[in-house]
Write a structure and sequence with these properties.
Helix content is 32%, strand content 21%. The chain has 203 residues and is of the alpha/beta class. The longest helix has 16 residues. The relative contact order is 0.19.
Amino acid sequence: MKLNYNKAEYAASFGKASQLPPPENAEIAFAGHSNVGKSTLINKIFNRKSLARVSSVPGKTATINFYRLDDIYFVDLPGYGYAKVSKSEKERWSGLISGYFEADRDLRLVFMLVDMRHAPTADDVKMIDFLIDTETPFVLVLTKADKLKKTERLRRMEAFQSEIPMFDAITTVPFSSVTGEGVDELREIIEEVTADNGVADDE
């Protein structure tokens, strides 16, 4: 199924796990540290400037935001690990994220974002461990790839081998919102994991 990415639209936002809609559609989620570039990635995939609001303030996305394209929901999870947020707010975010994953949703894939320039944070590793332990399918998206020179990039990829659990076994896509690197590959992955969507309706 070829998707028309320009047709994506904002659907809804939820601040508590109890508010989340019942799982009815295939879903693809975006997870990552505050300010890693989730909103920027979503906008780039859908060829839009402001479908997802990009904030210069880390930790601004405090809700789970749903975007809809045909019969697929794209789910922007709150960025974690922002130090200047109160403990109660961190707990709310944590409950929101875990509430999302614990529900029996038709979650096809998680795009797990890590800033390519740096070693993953402890929270990144914790999230990757969680995805591995729960056997949740995920793809590692290495953001801000354009900011590294070729030798620095090779050095980071080598370092990830020891910094990220099971790195060799994880599908990894370097991404740049500036050059567009990785966008086509991510779209192909989206179409692959949602290929059976709508098959029943056609019969």
